[in-house]
Design goal:
Order of helices and strands: HHHHEEEHHEHHEHEEHHHEHHEE
Radius of gyration: 23 Å
CATH class of the largest domain: Alpha Beta
CATH topology of the largest domain: 2-enoyl-CoA Hydratase, Chain A, domain 1
Distance between the termini: 49 Å
Low-confidence stretches: 329-333
CATH superfamily of the largest domain: 2-enoyl-CoA Hydratase, Chain A, domain 1
Structural class: alpha/beta
Largest sheet: 8 strands, mixed
Number of domains: 2
CATH architecture of the largest domain: Alpha-Beta Complex
Mean pLDDT: 90
Shape: globular
Length: about 350
Amino acid sequence: MATVNHRLAFERPIYELEARLQKLEAATGDSLAAHEDIRRLKRELTDVKKRIYSSLAPWETVQVARHSDRPMTTDYLDLVFDEFVELHGDKFFGDDRAMRTGFAKIDQYKVMVVGHQKGKTTKERIACYHGCAHPEGYRKALAKMKLAAKYGLPVICLIDTPGAYPGIGAEERGQAQVIAQNMFEMSRLPTPIICVVIGEGGSGGALGIGVGDKVAMLEHAYYSVISPEGCAGILWKSHTFAEQAAAALKMTSKHLLGMGVVDDVIEEPLGGAHRDHHQMAARMKIYLLKCLRELVPNRPDQLVAKRYEKFRRMGVYLERVLEPAGRGSADHLDRTAGSGE
């Protein structure tokens, strides 16, 4: 079990019970009554975790998704994949450490892994810009995806970013253009693509590696067009309204699965992925293998056609149909699915 260094306010009852349990286990002897107290306290701790994590508010979900102890891309590379050989650089500007790419193996499948990396230490976080990739990061990702398609390797994308880096240099090097290019190219890449939001899925930074045959997210991750703070700054003119913005954005796994934005939700260990990296990695591996078994047998043209239809069906829009002349002047509004059907 991973050591939890960063404590969230709403988890206080959990920490209090864990402290009591640790104290009791250290002081207990071999008496039957002491062991019964430990079992009772463990049951109470499990019940409290279930109660808290089954009813997280959207803003609390954001806090869990940003937890500093939450497993990152490099953790999954170590725990899920049997081998990993990193590939560097975009052959244009540089090597963005916020975007990791490389060949990997998961059971019998050889794959290409692309993922955001936030960094664990202060030095690494600075080098990775806290997971906010520059244009060279997205160019690197696309180049490696095309390499995977060339050799018939499935692509696995692990998304964990608050958004693409918004600096002047990034804009000068074509940040918006390269994200749009990635989305376009991924939509027609002739190889299986599996995308999983493992923490934060913020804005175009997430979409830049988020177009896939299967798009999933972890139970306590979030996936949104904008961060809660960014939304609050626009709508309420203050970041102090981030909690209200998080609720309005409908960006948790329950909302997005119901709206069809994601295909699957991967259940996290009780109390969140930050409490048990190994169990979370095991569940991730099971999901990835299931998807690979389903997608690999498909022909490339089948994959591309199904991927197009999948994203074409998303969303709802209003279509205006004009009445023919002589039948009245009122317009008829037809609420139509995004596919036009």
